Structures are given as structure tokens and as C-alpha cells.
Amino acid sequence: MDEHVRISHFRNHYELTRKNYMVKNLKRFRKQLEREAGKLEAAKCDFFPKTFELPSEYHLFVEEFRKNPGITWIMKPVARSQGKGIFLFRRLKDIMDWRKGTAGKKPTSLEAQQARGAVNPSGSHDSRSSDDQKEEIPVENYVAQRYIENPYLIGGRKFDLRVYVLVMSYIPLRAWLYRDGFARFSNTRFTLNSIDDQCILGPHLPSPFVLRPSCPLAVLREHVHSTDTF
């Protein structure tokens, strides 16, 4: 690419933005660190919880699940946002119930394309015929991740930070951070008492999208604050 050309995305940016690809790259980085710097240095790369991609790593997940009975896990679709498709669980039966609940659901056109790869992350289209694609049953990939049961809270609520970064290059890494970001807070105080009710995500997801769609804008704004507040 010529020096004067600018594009809005780096090539293969989805390696960081899709949940399953991001965790694969983190695991790959940890193994590389172990080879190059030793196990002691690689052990410092422990900032993300145990994570498995389903259905491809289901048996590995079940093995880990049975080693630690009673802990909480969170399931997240790899390519969705706004809290859609997320649920928490403590029993394998909950996954089976979830699979039964989704088995008969007809996916949207975009979800079906993403599930079978008709539209891949780079934006190119599948070369197979539409008849071949219709015969396939799309399977949506999820990540199962060990849930952080003792998160850092502000005012008893979970939160996340939204900041803007302009990345000029990856090698060498050059980035500019815009300091005026904002924080999003969960709409209710954090508790683990609602785990068994998969419809209650308010204490767990700091996103205004988990509120009822009919919520007034003023109510939504109560859960978003500028980082200047802190």
C-alpha cells in the first residue's frame, strides 16, 4: 500500500474483534512466550479466564467443567454484540436446555451466512451454490468462559470502559489514545443470586442494550458516565 493511502481497518482486524479468534491468539501468544522466555514469564499472561470455543472444544470444556464443580460460566456468541445470546450457567444441563431451545429456531439471513461461512470475516462470499448452502444446518459458534465472580465494582455495579484509540501501525506498535472516553454501568447492583434465571442479565452486563427497548433515553443516560467523573 502506498504511503499516502489510508483505510479505516487493518487487514484481518477480526482476529482481535471476534471472541473466538481473540482467545485463540491470546493462547498462541502465551505458548510463544513460553518457548521464547520460559514458563515463568508465560505464567504472567494470566489476565483472561479459561475459555473454550463450542462446539469444537466441547469435550475439553466438559473436562474442565467437571474438575471445578459449582463455579459459574458464561456463554457468548462469537460474532454478536449488545448482550444478545449471552447467558450464565452452573450446570451442564443448562447447555443442553439451551441447545434444545435453539435447535428449532430459524436463524436470520445474516446469522445463517455467518454460521456456515457464506460471508467470511474478510468480506468475501462463499463460492458454493445457494442450493448447497440451503441444505446445510447453520451452527452458531459460542465461547464458554469461566465467569469472574468477584469483579471490581463501582458503587456495587459492574462497568466497562469505552476508549478511542488510533493505531498507526502494529509493527512497530504506534497508537494514540483519546483521553475523553466513557464508562457504562450495569442497570442493577451486582449479585450472583440471579444466575439460575437466564433472562436476568442486568447485574452482569454493563450495557444499556440489556434494558427494555422502551426505556426512555434519560434512563439510559443514567448508566453512561464520562471518564472525567473518575
UniProtKB/TrEMBL annotation:
<feature type="compositionally biased region" description="Basic and acidic residues">
    <location>
        <begin position="125"/>
        <end position="136"/>
    </location>
</feature>
<dbReference type="GO" id="GO:0000226">
    <property type="term" value="P:microtubule cytoskeleton organization"/>
</dbReference>
<keyword id="KW-0067">ATP-binding</keyword>
<keyword id="KW-0547">Nucleotide-binding</keyword>
<dbReference type="GO" id="GO:0070740">
    <property type="term" value="F:tubulin-glutamic acid ligase activity"/>
</dbReference>
<dbReference type="InterPro" id="IPR013815">
    <property type="entry name" value="ATP_grasp_subdomain_1"/>
</dbReference>
<comment type="similarity">
    <text>Belongs to the tubulin--tyrosine ligase family.</text>
</comment>
<feature type="region of interest" description="Disordered">
    <location>
        <begin position="103"/>
        <end position="136"/>
    </location>
</feature>
<dbReference type="GO" id="GO:0005524">
    <property type="term" value="F:ATP binding"/>
</dbReference>
<dbReference type="Pfam" id="PF03133">
    <property type="entry name" value="TTL"/>
</dbReference>
<dbReference type="GO" id="GO:0036064">
    <property type="term" value="C:ciliary basal body"/>
</dbReference>
<dbReference type="InterPro" id="IPR004344">
    <property type="entry name" value="TTL/TTLL_fam"/>
</dbReference>
<dbReference type="GO" id="GO:0015631">
    <property type="term" value="F:tubulin binding"/>
</dbReference>
<keyword id="KW-0436">Ligase</keyword>
<protein>
    <recommendedName>
        <fullName>Tubulin--tyrosine ligase-like protein 9</fullName>
    </recommendedName>
</protein>
